[in-house]
Amino acid sequence: MNGAGSSRRRPSGSRLKTYSHLERDRRLPSEYELVTTSLLYYPSRGFEVKTPLAPWYEKHQRGSLLTARDWERFCDPRQTTYAKYTALALKGETYLDGVLEAIETKGYDRALSPEWRGTLDRVLGPLRYPLHGFQMIAAYIGQMAPSGRIAVAALFQAADEVRRIQRLAYRMTLLQAIDPAFGRDSKNVWLRDPAWQPLREAVERCLVTYDWGESLVALNLCIKPLIDELFMTYLAKEAEEHDDHMLGQLFSSLDEDCRWQRAWTAALLQTAMQDNAENRTVIEGWIARWGEVAQRAAAAFDGFFRRTPAPSAALASFAAKMRADVVAEAPAA
Asked: CA 93 → CA 4, 87, 158, 235, distances in Å?
């Protein structure tokens, strides 16, 4: 077909373009902007069909104390799309495959002392349970988020936690090759060992915190950063003192995800405070409520550190600086 009569033309009065919702920036949108902007219709106009779920969103999403006129102004610092996420995950998984293969093929675990294997038995198996909790909370934040960009970041975070759990389980399997009983008592340790109970309380309380904004601050600004730093950094240092350098390599790679999660959370909360100055008071109130819960959970593990200094004091300083950086005076929007 050819000729002027064969082409379909836009009505002469229309000035809409393919990405008109991004036209305000007056530039060609990035791939990240194209695939994450204005994904959700219901935060502004409600669900198309009335269901019993609607009041839940009205109360815990639109009724959250954390408010903004335009959540679409949030931008993930890494600008993570599905394609970018899978490329980064492939790189990370390839590295971790190499670490675990080296452990398996070189008889690495047989050289570890019984004392250190006992510590790992108290850590690796039980740690899967709070990480499952972190994954569930991140998924809930993604479900309740008032913007597609927030939902995307939170759901990639949930995927990161699944990946971390899987790698811990694989590491346990390698240790079971020389000690079949390794990890057998993990659930009981999680439920009853005094060292784990403050963290269990924190996770369980966060799981029933339904305001999406408070859930975000409780997990990503209070509980999770301390627990991530405790295990991914400080336990790795303790492992070095027990001639277990491979644990540090494993955790260092997984910690890259944790650092990104803190970065996107900081960017989101900064955006919220730029949009609405009252959000600073709200965030500070949630930090006051959850910060002590998180610190108590981290401090309970001091007894695991026998050859390196107990990390609770350093973690308190880490948390104070991280939160101060987040709630520092945000520049005007």
From this structure: 54, 10, 16, 21
> Angle 245-275/278-299 helices, nearest 10 degrees?
160
Positions in the chain whose pLDDT score sits under 70? 1-27, 329-333
What proportions of the chain, in percent to the nearest 5, are helix, strand and coil? 70, 0, 30
Residues in CB range of 258: below 8 A, 6 or more apart: 224, 225, 228, 229, 232
**pLDDT value at residue 26:** 62
The total number of residues shown for the chain amounts to 333
Distance CA 167, CA 288 (A): 33
128 phi and psi angles, rounded to 5 deg? -60, -35
State the architecture of 77-323 in CATH terms: Orthogonal Bundle (1.10)
* pLDDT at res. 29: 79
Cβ-Cβ contacts under 8 Å for 98 (sequence gap 6 or more): none
pTM listed for this prediction? 0.91
The per-residue pLDDT for 30 is: 86
d(CA 295, CA 315): 8
3-class DSSP state for residue 310?
A: coil
pLDDT given at position 17: 55
d(CA 102, CA 273): 47
